[in-house]
Amino acid sequence: MILTCMIIDDEPLAIRLLEEYVNKTPYLKLIASLDNPIEAVEAYTQSPVDLVFLDIQMPELSGLELSRVIQGKTRIIFTTAFKQYAFESYELNAIDYLLKPISFQAFLKASNKALQWFELIRKEKEEVVSPPSAPVPQTENSKSLFVKTDYKLVRVDMDKILYISSLKDYVQFYIEGEVRSIISLMTMKAVEDMLPPDRFIRVHRSYIISLDKIKAIENNRIIIGKEYIPISDAYKEKFNSFLANYSIIKK
């Protein structure tokens, strides 16, 4: 499967680096590179692409503002030199965000997420239309879930789940030791209802985390492995209650 893509960044050096990475990635086809966000809007409107690598901090029109123009099936991977923008990119349901300076490994990981998304969409269209899948019900003492992905049911060991994220009508299970996430057509509510509440907690409309996998908590962010998961205001009280029970804080 080939994904068409566009690079939008006001830094020529950043564009050249991303162009090099795109050319090294077999399933990506570069349609355009633009350093002016206003011109980029017109170019995208005339020739929509599958994937946009979009810088956040640009003059006249920021990447976050520009992303609201990008609709349809197009997915976005934000690029930024500032970690704080990651939270806003989560809210906009971006596929991923890349922190500058961008390594090829990080670029490839984000691009693979996009490829998985489009492959799943294609497979779902090929299947007979059916209600969204849900995990196979488990007994109270179950240690695993069966999740429908592609054309099969996959056993997911709950001890190895790092976190779960939503991607519009789909969810992604990130599993310890696995390079690729498991993507399935279901709602976050359905997943939340199936997971034991003493082991998993929802911290954002787009994230459920494994409590056992928390590495640290920093500035309303949960660190799991190398990932930073935002804690939204709607779920902060519930998460703080968990912290109150399991924290040793010197008063």
Structure description:
By secondary structure, the chain is of the alpha/beta class. Helices cover 31% and strands 31% of the residues. The protein is built from seven helices and 15 strands. The chain has helices at residues 12-23, 37-46, 63-67, 85-91, 104-126, 188-194, 233-246; strands spanning 3-8, 28-34, 51-55, 75-80, 96-99, 144-149, 152-157, 161-167, 170-175, 182-185, 200-204, 207-210, 216-218, 221-224, 227-230. The strands form four sheets. It has a five-stranded parallel beta sheet, sandwiched between helices. Strands 10-9-8-12-11 form a five-stranded antiparallel beta sheet. A hairpin with a 2-residue loop joins strand 11 (200-204) and strand 12. The chain is globular, with a radius of gyration of 19 Å. The model has no long low-confidence stretch (mean pLDDT 83).
